[in-house]
Amino acid sequence: MTDTMSKIAAGLERAFARGGFAEPSVETLRDAAGVSLRTLYKYTPSRDDMVLAALENRHQRYLSHVFDGLPDNTEDATNAILARVGTWMAKEASHGCLFHAAVAADPNSDTLRRFLKRHKAEVASRAAAATGLEVAETELLVIVEGLTQAWPLHGDAAVEAAIRLAHALRVSLG
Amino acid sequence: MTDTMSKIAAGLERAFARGGFAEPSVETLRDAAGVSLRTLYKYTPSRDDMVLAALENRHQRYLSHVFDGLPDNTEDATNAILARVGTWMAKEASHGCLFHAAVAADPNSDTLRRFLKRHKAEVASRAAAATGLEVAETELLVIVEGLTQAWPLHGDAAVEAAIRLAHALRVSLG
DNA sequence: TTCGGGGTAGAGTGATCGCTCTACTTGCGT
DNA sequence: ACGCAAGTAGAGCGATCACTCTACCCCGAA
């Protein structure tokens, strides 16, 4: 990945996160990317490609933020993951999950739906491994997704509720 | 609400549910509503009003589907609510929550954000009352939201995971 | 010194969009 | 019988959109 490409991807992610996927015109995206229209189209030959580039950037940054350097103890790791999802929402995603937003804006795109599925599957699998809750991966996904959607409405109270839910789940598994 | 208005609202809801909020043109919406362009604009004077009319219709139908005629026993009611969310997803919302989709398509609209908040607050409050879990309303919202988001990825396995989570929550509350 | 790859600036194009307007029809109360 | 409210059909308008194209600049290697 060239320097120009990563600069473009970061700018596109910022623009779509701010304005959603429907509204920003290609000119707005160009300004956010900080390159000329010709260069933007060279690296991302259509607006749809710009969306994909932004999501790829988002995917890597999200995984990094939530899963890098977790504590070894599985219960500590569980609480850390949920708290980090909260800080991610606060700093980056006050409007909600960007992948769901992309699918919502164009629900009939198979490419976007596959991208969403891949992203969530990797999140769930990494969370299951770090928390030691592999036998309840779907429950874990429900908690993380629920927290992501409830955070815009309840803020940190949603984080605490998610942590209590995860604790109850762990207890119920013995 | 006149006959024409409810026919329009039902058609608009169908059109936005199928195509998302960004893509369908007003001509497509007119076809879905089954009226002339002039009549459509008489009842919903702008495309934004068409979105609001569709969401209002959705709100009523969703509450009806999930909460009408629940069993009295709180544990049965809990399972029934989560199962009904699953059947709702299967029949009506295979692309995800329509309210989140609307906000995602236009994340800077205060009107839409307020609408989303009102909808989710009413869902959470009705769920808390029916399940007897008023002290854990936020946890309940996390479960319902998590189920809604996880269903497109895992189908009925998400419903079962949500039911297990709700059970663990009830046990942990004593 | 020259030349080519990779960048900028920005005008232009055809299509599509939200929305309005004119002209006509239909059904009902008096 | 008549008038009016409420509907249909669809052409037209101005703005905006995604995308292309021309013309130019800069810099490092041969």
UniProtKB/TrEMBL annotation, chains A, B:
Query: In its keyword annotation, does this UniProt entry include Ribosomal protein?
Result: no
InterPro entries of this UniProt entry?
Homeodomain-like_sf, HTH_TetR
The entry's keywords: DNA-binding
Where the record puts its DNA-binding region(s)? 25-44
The UniProt record lists the HTH tetR-type domain at 2-62
Instruction: Supply the Pfam families for this chain.
Output: TetR_N
Write down the superkingdom of origin. Answer: Bacteria
Name under which the protein is recorded: TetR/AcrR family transcriptional regulator
